[in-house]
């Protein structure tokens, strides 16, 4: 197994862990939606990075989902979310963690769907990788 594949598998495990945290927090009556969405954003981010590792792509430390998807697109890899969808999740990584009145940019249903689609896509990429 190559180091890139090992890192891709590790990041996908972390993405699944964040998805589980997101879903658990989403249903908690005492947890703010933006706190739950932090984990949705993290799941998508780590899924993108897992596929980047598979393709041997370099990336800087960032939470910017559009930047990460742009790097994938430049390498000819299409992801299952549009730029506008990614743009809605990115603020939950940093900006909304320090705001006590965050503006909801996604619905719970959208966040669930975005996370599930990107995880399924990354799982498929890993399954089909040499």
Explain what you see:
With 130 residues, the protein is mainly α. The chain has a single domain, classed as Four Helix Bundle (Hemerythrin (Met), subunit A), CATH 1.20.120.330. The protein is built from five helices and no strands. The model has no long low-confidence stretch (mean pLDDT 93).
Outline of the structure:
With 130 residues, the chain is mostly helical. It contains five helices and no strands.
Q: What tags apply to this protein structure?
A:
130 residues; mainly alpha; Four Helix Bundle (Hemerythrin (Met), subunit A); 65% helix; globular
CATH class: Mainly Alpha
Q: How many H/I helical runs?
A: 5
Listing every helix as H and every strand as E from the N terminus to the C terminus, the arrangement reads HHHHH
How many strand segments?
A: 0
Largest sheet features = none
CATH H-level superfamily:
Nucleotidyltransferases  domain 2
Shape field:
globular
Unreliable parts: none
State Rg: 14 Å
What's the number of domains?
Answer: 1
Helix content: 55-70%
Structural class: mainly alpha
CATH topology: Four Helix Bundle (Hemerythrin (Met), subunit A)
How much strand content do the residues show? under 5%
**If classified by CATH, what would the architecture be?**
Up-down Bundle
Mean pLDDT figure: 93
End-to-end span in angstroms?
9 Å
């Amino acid at each position: 197994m190559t180091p890139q594949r090992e890192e891709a598998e590790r990041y996908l495990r972390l993405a699944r862990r964040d998805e589980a945290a997101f879903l658990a927090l989403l249903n908690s009556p005492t947890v703010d939606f933006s706190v739950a969405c932090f984990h949705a954003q993290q799941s998508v981010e780590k899924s993108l990075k897992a596929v980047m590792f598979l393709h041997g792509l370099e990336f800087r430390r960032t939470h910017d989902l559009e930047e990460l998807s742009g790097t994938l697109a430049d390498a000819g890899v299409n992801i299952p979310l549009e730029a506008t969808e990614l743009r809605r999740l990115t603020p939950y990584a940093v900006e909304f963690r320090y705001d006590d009145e965050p503006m909801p940019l996604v619905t719970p249903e959208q966040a669930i769907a975005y996370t599930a689609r990107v995880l399924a896509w990354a799982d498929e990429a890993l399954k089909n990788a040499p």
